[in-house]
Amino acid sequence: MSLNIKPSADRVVVQAAAAETKTASGIYVPETAQEKPQKGTVVAVGPGKYADLSGTLIPMSVKVGDEILYGKYAGTEVTVDGKEYLIMRESDIYAVFN
């Protein structure tokens, strides 16, 4: 997937996973009751952040294609080419799936 934006510093662009439409027991959840997803796939990564004291570049620990968990209210929602994405700082990422 080619994205036309490049995040700056320690930010990542994430495509959120689809919200669950059915419970484990098979009950369909209406759109108004669906929870905001907290899982997604990284589609673009910034270069990293410069350390305050030394000025050296601290590289990012996530890469394009990583599946991640993030906070419920993390990031800023943006629309690019008709698709919705989240832009968030690397520190908003809680975990990376192996």
TrEMBL record:
Q: Which branch of life, at top level?
A: Bacteria
Q: Which SUPFAM superfamilies match?
A: GroES-like
Single annotated GO MF: protein-folding chaperone binding
User: What keyword terms does UniProt attach to this protein?
Assistant: Chaperone, Cytoplasm
Q: What does this protein do?
A: Together with the chaperonin GroEL, plays an essential role in assisting protein folding. The GroEL-GroES system forms a nano-cage that allows encapsulation of the non-native substrate proteins and provides a physical environment optimized to promote and accelerate protein folding. GroES binds to the apical surface of the GroEL ring, thereby capping the opening of the GroEL channel.
For this chain, the family text in UniProt reads:
Belongs to the GroES chaperonin family.
List locations, semicolon-separated: Cytoplasm
Q: Which GO terms describe its cellular component?
A: cytoplasm
The family database entries (HAMAP family) matched by this protein are listed as: CH10
PANTHER family in UniProt = 10 KDA HEAT SHOCK PROTEIN, 20 KDA CHAPERONIN, CHLOROPLASTIC
Subunit relationships? Heptamer of 7 subunits arranged in a ring. Interacts with the chaperonin GroEL.
> What is this protein called in UniProt?
Co-chaperonin GroES
